[in-house]
Structure formats: C-alpha cells, structure tokens
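Ticket opened by: R.M.
Priority: normal
Category: complex prediction / small molecule

The reporter submitted a protein together with adenosine-5'-triphosphate and asked that the result be attached to this ticket for the collaborator who will pick it up next week. Submitted input follows.
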Amino acid sequence: MPEPTFATIVNLAKKRGFVFQASEIYGGLRSAYDYGPLGVALLRNVKEAWWRSMVRSRDDVVGLDSAIIQSPLVWEASGHVSQFHDPLVECTSCHSRHRLDKLEDQSRCPKCGTRESFTEARDFNLMFRTHMGPVAGEGNLVYLRPETAQGIFTNFENVRRVMRRKLPFGIAQVGKSFRNEITPGQFVFRTREFEQMEMEFFTHPDEADQWFEYWIDERRAWYLDLGMRSDNLRLRSHQGDELAHYAVGTYDVEYRFPWGWDELEGIANRTDFDLRMHSEHSGKDLRYFDQAAGERFYPYVIEPAAGATRAAFAFLIDAYDEEIVRGATRAVLRIDSRLAPIKVAVLPLSRKPDLVEVTGRVASLLRPRWDIEVDVTQAIGRRYRRQDEIGTPLCVTVDFRTLDDRAVTVRDRDTMAQDRVSIDRLVGYLADRLADSPRTGA
Ligand code: ATP
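Result attached by the on-call engineer:
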C-alpha cells in the first residue's frame, strides 16, 4: 500500500478523537491542540514506554519533575536569554514571517512567491515571557521553560547527594516545554506548547564519547523496539553552525515524515557547559568529587532529548496501513500493543439483553488489567473497522453461542484471524497475546 498522506493521518486523528483543535468552539487557536480520549492514552503510553526504558528498567538513572517556571537567573546562566533564538525574516511584500534556516529557498517567500523580498534576519528569542505575581514589571519577569533539562542541572547536586550516586548516572524528566516558534506547523509536529522526554547522563569527561555512542544506539533501538519501521528511521550528525551553543556533538534521530526526513530526537554531548555555567552564576560548586581518585571536576553530560507529542505523532503515522479486504479498503493502525490506546474491545454481536449482560461480565473481568472499550452500537463489521482504525490489537466478541459454550471469539487486528476461547481462560489468553502491554497511566 502507498505511504499514508499527511491529510489521511490528520483526518484520522481528528475523526477518531486523538487530537482536537484547541479552543475550537471559538474558532481555534493556531497551532495549539488538545488531546482527546484516544490521543491522551497514546501519549501516556509513549511516555510510559520511555520512562520504563529510561528509568525503571535501569539502575543508573533516576527521575525528577521540576517546575516549569524557574528563576530567570537559570535561563541567563544557561545561555537561553542571550542565545536561544532563531533567525526571523519578514517578507516586505506580504508581511508573512518565516524562520530563515528552515526555508528551502532562502531568497523566495513561500507564502506569496516574491523574490528577494525578505528583511535582514534578526534574532528572535523563543522563550515565552510572563510575570510572576500581581504586578507586571521587569522585576518579576519569568520565562516558561523551553526545555526540561535546566531543572535537572540545577538539581544535580540535590539528586546526587540524596540518592548517593556515583558517576556515571542519569536524571530523567518528562514534561511540558514552551517555545514561541516562528513557524509552528505540520499539525502536532511543531507546536508552541509540547511535551519533552529528556535525560541528562553525567559522566567523567574521559568517558563522554563512549556514552555518547551508547545513547545514540539505545535511543534508536527504543523506536525500533516499539515497532517503528527501520527504513523510516535514520541518524544524522549535526554539522558546524547547526550545533546548539552548548554542544560539541549532536546526532538527530530522524523519521521519514510525509513531508520528508525530520527530527524526532536529538542526542547531544553538552560537555560540562551547563554545570559550569550554573556554578559560575550561582556561586555554588557543582563539581563532582571522585573520592577514589581524589579528583574534583565538572562531569560531562550526554543528553537524549525527545519530544513526546512528536513521537506519538510519528508512531501514529508509522502504524497506519490500508489494505483491500474483499474488495473494500480496510484502514488499520498496526501499532505496538504497548502503545495502543485501547488494548481490548468487547463487542456483543447484538444488543439482546442476554448478550449485553454477558458482555458486562466479560468487561469487568478485563477492566482491572487493561484499557478496554465496550461497544454495543452498529453492525459488528463497522465496529471492527473502528477498532482497526484506532489500533485495538484484540476484539472479543460475545455471540449467541457464548450463552451455551461459555466461550468468546477473539479477533486479531493484524491478521483478522479468530480464536474461540473459553471465558474461564480469557484473561490468561489475552495476557499472553498482550505480553509487555502496560496499562495506560499505570
Ligand atoms: P528545531 O531545530 O527543529 O526547532 P531543536 O533541534 O531545537 O528543534 P531540541 O532542542 O533538540 O529541538 O528539542 C528536543 C526535542 O524536543 C526535539 O527533537 C523534538 O522532538 C522536541 N521539540 C522541540 N521543539 C518542539 C516543538 N516546537 N514542538 C514539538 N516538539 C518539539
């Protein structure tokens, strides 16, 4: 089947309640989105899979949840106030604004087509500003964080001490970040409010290169393990002036989006830049003391920084498939069961009270373990189609035979093969089929 178009995925996301336009009843707010019931489940599953792989399954990484609004001094020290900007140009003909480094043809306005119409590029700082407290003034200017990382650096010593950590170790965080992007777009790919999944891995400077390689491999493997197709994934090294002000090396994990290759995640060697800056600006010594070697130094930091909302979108695109079944097109989301918003749908063949009653009992057997959906409306074919489209791995159908044989039919999303399974054995059977499948939000 041909690759899905961007419009197909956006339509699916809207139609099935993954993503809604924010403030839709007021005409919407540009490039702001709300996650609907299925979208929030998918997003939580992505974050959960990340947390499981980065924190819970490791003994060298711990978690953190720092504040979105930090002291403005944090952003001065980190260089964000002076350097976190993109080059902004304005077309003198149609007055549209663009981010110069993302334009394919930097001499032609992509909106009105006029050539050589851009103003000189000026640095536009991407941090959202607001004021803390009742009076708006320069004295209480604060920023919404543009990355979660700085809350980790400022807590480096707290975490090291209370968790009694020795190098190397990492601190991971998942949460919202905000960037006043010049040109948000491509649906939820680039928004001004988004979620990040970041981990700062602190190492001895001599071991930084080795850990850099390690985390590049690990992070690529994470996407593959969750079913992303390898020919849609690649690694790309940053060149020269593409490098952020704090990094000596960066690899992007890129995904082949419908509009071309684009970034999913960046893995950077941030050197000792952040800890050194925070030490200098705060006056607190954030160096690490290695007792065995009698050595005091600033650790280097390897940072895998991924977007949760962006990854969820990529998983959605990657899983989408269409096939012809008995002359009709079947749309199916072949998404890993760990990410699927609903794990099992329970469907009575008809609305007859006997069947609905058994359906209720089957549902209450399954609900404590998995995210399930009970659907009693419409013809069974249409209900299967909906579950296929939202990626539900297994459908359990309660039919008239169930009343006699105490068994149900379990239909597989990908193969459409059906198994007859007795209700007594159902939980064990589904547990085997959904191995590894965490409950959403667990
Ligand atoms: P770009 O150059 O495309 O603006 P970046 O390289 O500055 O992005 P990073 O600072 O490396 O991005 O951010 C780490 C991750 O956070 C990105 O790989 C992406 O997944 C996510 N991310 C960054 N900005 C946005 C955004 N505006 N919307 C959604 N996700 C984002």
